């Protein structure tokens, strides 16, 4: 099985066949051990033996107890962390496949610009940038006009329940939940083909959380593949197509589809 995948990565004609399938990301047996150099090189297990795949238009929810490695897995896919061993095969729309576990830094930066997005729990923007500008900027960077981008940003902020009086203020002054909604709007205004979401509804009330989930479901219809971390079972059942329960090395790993669980 593994051999076949490796061959496909390098063989020309087979790449065309891959572009016709629905696969977006194929994670095989990845692990991460942190070495704390300032603590006598103590080793901390981030996660190990993790394998799953995500198709276009599909949401995979990562579940598991605190500290089991869910956020670290997203960071490994985004290549904030290097992993060892295993492979993280990203299937591009042109049919080529890139191993995110081993590709070069410039390729990683290119993919982040256009194809892989990460909505973290915390908003990072420069001071003096307004909420509208913060949300519009990914669209402007893609070459869209300021006016169209601002209109789209205003639409999204409104959809997520941000009051209009806040649009022209720095989001750094916003409440935690408001900042999180600005962060989500920014992450989805020009949605990348694979979206990583680390607890996107963590500090939101029920109504705001509902709006975010609806937005994510719209993205699925646009064929965006997503991997999300949610702690609430109800939310997972609503938005996810399948779950991957991250466990410590000595426990068995389980994957299940939401439909199967409900049946
Ligand atoms: N940069 C790092 N350096 C050292 N250890 C780290 C680092 N990042 C994560 N870890 C360790 O890896 C383990 C997994 O952390 P991670 O943040 O991925 O867990 P999580 O499942 O997302 O937890 P939570 O649900 O609480 O957010 C933890 O034991 C953590 O201490
Ligand atoms: Mg986490």
Distance between the termini: 30 Å
What is the CATH class name? Alpha Beta
Q: What is the strand arrangement across the widest sheet?
A: 6-7-8-3-9-10
Count the beta strands: 10
Approximately how much helix is present in the residues?
A: 25-40%
Query: What is the radius of gyration computed over CA atoms, rounded to a whole number of angstroms?
Result: 19 Å
Percent in strands: 15-25%
The CATH H-level superfamily is P-loop containing nucleotide triphosphate hydrolases
Give a structural overview.
By secondary structure, this protein is an alpha/beta fold. The protein has a single domain (2-115, 192-262), classed as P-loop containing nucleotide triphosphate hydrolases (Rossmann fold). Helices cover 39% and strands 24% of the residues. The chain has helices at residues 2-10, 12-20, 70-77, 105-114, 131-141, 146-159, 176-188, 206-221, 233-239, 258-262, and strands at residues 23-36, 42-55, 59-63, 87-91, 97-99, 116-119, 194-198, 225-229, 242-245, 254-257. The strands form 2 sheets. A 6-stranded mixed beta sheet has the order 6-7-8-3-9-10, sandwiched between helices. It has a 4-stranded antiparallel beta sheet with strand order 2-1-4-5. β7 (194-198), α8 (206-221) and β8 form a beta-alpha-beta unit. α5 crosses α6 (146-159) and α5 (131-141) packs parallel to α7. It is globular, with a radius of gyration of 19 Å. It starts with a helix and ends with a helix. Residues 1-19 have low confidence and may be disordered. The chain binds adenosine-5'-triphosphate and magnesium ion.
